[in-house]
Amino acid sequence: MVQQADIDASSNKYLRGKYAIVGVGETGYVRGSGRTTKALGTEAVRNAMQDAGLKAGDVDGMLSYSFNDSTFSPTVAGELGIRPNFYMDVYGGGSSIEALIGIAIGVIEAGMCKTVAIYRAMNGYSQVRIGGTGGKGAVAPLSGESIFTRGYGLMSAGQMFCQSFMRHMYDYGTTPEQVAAVKAIHSEHASNNPKAYYNKRVSVEDVINSRMIVKPLHLLDCCVETDNGVAIIVTSIDRAKDCKHPPAVIQSVVGRCCKPRADMHYQSGPISTVAGHYGKQILWPNAGLGPEDVDVTGSYDAFTFTTMLQLEDYGFCEKGEGGDYVSNGTMRLGGARPNNTSGGHLCEGYTHGINMVIENVRQLRHDVDDFCPVGADGKRQHTYDYSEGGCRQVKNVEVTANLGWATPGQGSAMIMAKN
Q1: Catalytic residue numbers?
Q2: Helix (H, G, I), strand (E, B), or coil: what is residue 89?
C-alpha cells in the first residue's frame, strides 16, 4: 500500500524547481497617482512582459488580487492584447502573492494555461486606504467580519495586530527599541533604492520619538501608503529558458496557511505565535532546505514587529529571540542575512507583498536597480558599498525566502533559488 507520506514526498520532489518567475514589473511608488487602477495594472504587467522578453501571445493566464480596489484581470488582459485561457481575481491583501504563485503553478501543472501574469494595482493612498476610509474620508459600512472587530475598536491593521507584539514584549522582554531597528535597517536599504518613496535614513531614536499611533506602535513603526501597480510572470522552467533573464526558480510555496482559528487567532495558541509556526512545516520540507540555507529574506513589514514575528516563527531564530535577531545587524546589508533590501513596505512602497518578491527576483539575477554605475555592456557594476546612495546587491545570493503576512493568524511564504 502507498502511504500518504510517500505521496507527499513524491509530489513535493516533482514540483520543486519546475516553475520560475521570469518577469517583474512596476510603476512608480507615489502618492496621488492621478491614474486608474486599470492604467496602473496595465503598465505593471506590460513592464513585466518586456522584462521577460514576452509578447501578448506568450501569456495566456492572469491572476490578480485586491483589497477594496483594483481592476479585474480580463480588463487588463484586453488592454494588452492577452487572451486568457485562465483567469482569476482574488479578494485579499497581505499574503496573497505567494498564494497566487502557488495557484499559478497549479493551473499550469493542470494544463489550463502555460504562462501566468500576476498583478496588484492599488491607489492605496489617494483612494481606498487600508483603515477603511475612501478618497473622501467616508467610513465603510459595518458588515461581515467587521461586526466582530470594529465594535471593539479594532478597525485598522495596527489596532488588530498590536496585541501580538504586546504579548511578545510581556513574555520575552522584547522592547520597542529592538523592533524599531527594523525600520532603521530598512531605511538604510531604501537609501540605496532610487524608486523608494521614503529614502532617508532614520535611527532607532527617530522611530521611538515619532508620535504614537496605537500602543506600542509609533508612526515610523508603520508602513508607507502608496499608489502603484506591480506584476510578476510565472511559467515552467522549460519555457523560462527562452526568456530574457535567468529565472528565479521556485522551490516551495505556502499559500495562506492559518492558525487553528484565523479570525480570532488568540483563542488557539499563544497570541504572539503567528501562522508561520504552521507554515514552516510545509515550506522547508517542500523546498528540501532550512532557514540556514537562505541568503536573503523578504519579510512582510506592514509594521516593524510583523517582520520580527515572522522571522522568528519560520525558524530563523528561536522563539523569544526575535528582538535580538532584528536588532543585532543580521538583517542589514553586509550582515549574515539581509532582509527587505529594497526598503520593503516600511520605506519603498506598499503593495501587499509583491514588491518584496520582485526585489528577491532581482537579487537572484544579480541586477538590483541601485545607484551603482552601469557598464558598457548595459549591466550594473555592483560595488557592494552599502553606504547611503550606493549599492544594495547582496554578494553571491543563491536562495531567498519571502514571508507573507495577512494577519497574525494567516500567512504565506515562498523559497526561490538561483538557476
Answers
A1: 300, 350
A2: strand
**Residue 127 grid coordinates:** 483612494
Q: Which three cell numbers stand for residue 413?
A: 511564504
Question: For the chain, where do the domains classified as CATH 3.40.47.10 start and end?
Answer: 16-128+226-240, 248-418
DSSP-assigned letter for residue 390:
S
- Directed axis angle between helix 157-172 and helix 304-313, to 10°? 60
Q: What is the rounded distance in angstroms from the CA atom of residue 53 to the CA atom of residue 243?
A: 6
Topology (CATH) of 248-418: Peroxisomal Thiolase; Chain A, domain 1 (3.40.47)
Tell me the pTM. Answer: 0.93
Q: Quick check: 221 and 304 in contact, CB under 8 A? A: yes
The H or E element that residue 407 is part of is strand 399-407
Per residue in 358-405, pLDDT (tens digit) is 999 999 999 999 999 999 988 899 999 999 999 999 999 999 999 999
What size, in residues, is the chain?
419
Instruction: Note whether 358 and 27 are within 8 A (CB).
Output: no
Residue of 81, 75, 76 whose CA lies nearest to 42: 76
Please report which confidence band the pLDDT of residue 139 belongs to, taking 50, 70 and 90 as the band edges: low
Q: What confidence score (pLDDT) does residue 145 get? A: 67
Residue-wise pLDDT tens digits, 151-163: 667 778 888 899 9
Distance CA 394, CA 230 (A): 23
Report the C-alpha dihedral over residues 120, 240, 281, 303, rounded to 10 degrees.
-30
Distance CA 358, CA 19 (A): 16
What is each CA distance from 175 to 61, 166, 181, 217, 283, in whole angstroms? 46, 9, 10, 11, 29
Q: Domain 16-128+226-240: give its CATH code.
A: 3.40.47.10
Question: What average pLDDT does the segment 289-301 reach?
Answer: 98
